[in-house]
Amino acid sequence: MALSKITNTSMADTAIHGRRNLIINGAMIIDQRNSGSSVTINSGNETYVTDRFICRGETSDGVFTAEQDTTTPDDFKNSFKITVTTADSSIGATQSYLIRHRIEGQNISYLNWGFASAQKCTLSFYVRSSVTGTFGGSFNNSAFNKSYPFTYTISTADTWERKVITVDGPTDGTWVTDNGNGIIIGWSLGAGSSRVGTAGAWASTNYQGATGQTNLIATNSSTFYITGIQLEVGEQATLFEHRSYGEELALCQRYFIEDDTVYRAYTNAPADNGSRACNFYFPTIMRAAPSMTAAVDAGTVTFSSRTINGIAMTIGGSVSGNTTFTSGYTADAEL
To answer: The dihedral of CA 281, 287, 293, 299: what is its sign?
Structure first.
């Protein structure tokens, strides 16, 4: 009997080795908050757009919109789209416009960042822009006193290109390994002189982009798309790890839950001013006890307890016995 020949195939050319992507929702398929609607970014407050992805801008100077989009490279359904609506061609020294992703510390503990055995990691993503040039981004720790600027080049306008950046693991600095911010990755859309530094080197300061980078925010009506974002251990980028929609949703719900399900509670009080406690269990264990919002069609809502597993909610007010209330909720435990 002849033996079958074993072919030596590079790991980078296969898609069978799963559970390697540290990025959640890197294909932008989950958008619980906005369902594809555009969000205007015109302040320094961080705003979540698609799940796990934040945008930050500056008050009044430059303005851009962000949204889930269906313009994609092959093998993807969604992307993250930026459109500049008010240009800022004179960015202040400490100003910054960016897309940001936060990775929980418990998911990076095995990287050994901050120690002599720190592992190298490789970031890869697909990007498309109406503006060409050398763009910048950065890795940061939670204290923003350790950063690694990086660059990538967009060669052709309005064309999808895949970019790969390998980063040496930092051997110093404080890197959180509990349920707080572990690694913060940013893609710069524009940054001032004190927010950019030399690409490819760790610095003990808060850089958010790279020296000499192209600032998308300087060009009005410019567009920028990104998807297929992956961060993995090692020096080689592998094919993007597509997870099922259900699995990706569950990973996102550790940080944020938008529950539009109609819940009903009946008061048992025979007279007015009755109330009823309702217990809700989250579909997954959340990162921390979340902040809550709820909407009801009558009465008032009070959250009597909040845990990583669920909540106790009391619905009350000027109501009579056996009154039906309906309610949905959001639970926010973002990093």
So the answer is: positive
**pLDDT grade, residue 326 (50/70/90)?**
low
Do 148 and 203 touch, CB atoms closer than 8 A? Answer: yes
* Type of residue found at 4: S
The residue that leads in pLDDT, 6 or 131, is 131
Burial of residue 168, with CB atoms counted within 10 A of its CB: 0-12 exposed, 13-18 middle, 19 or more buried: middle
User: Which of 116, 108, 115, 99 lies closest to 48, judged by CA?
Assistant: 99
Distance CA 249, CA 30 (A): 6
Pairing verdict, β 196-197 and 209-210 = parallel
Neighbours of 84 (CB within 10 A): 25
What are the angstrom distances between the C-alpha of 139 and each of 16, 102, 204? Answer: 28, 10, 12
Over 80: is that where the pLDDT of 149 sits?
Answer: yes
Give how far Cα 149 sits from Cα of 65, 195, 199, 206, 220, Å: 24, 10, 5, 10, 25
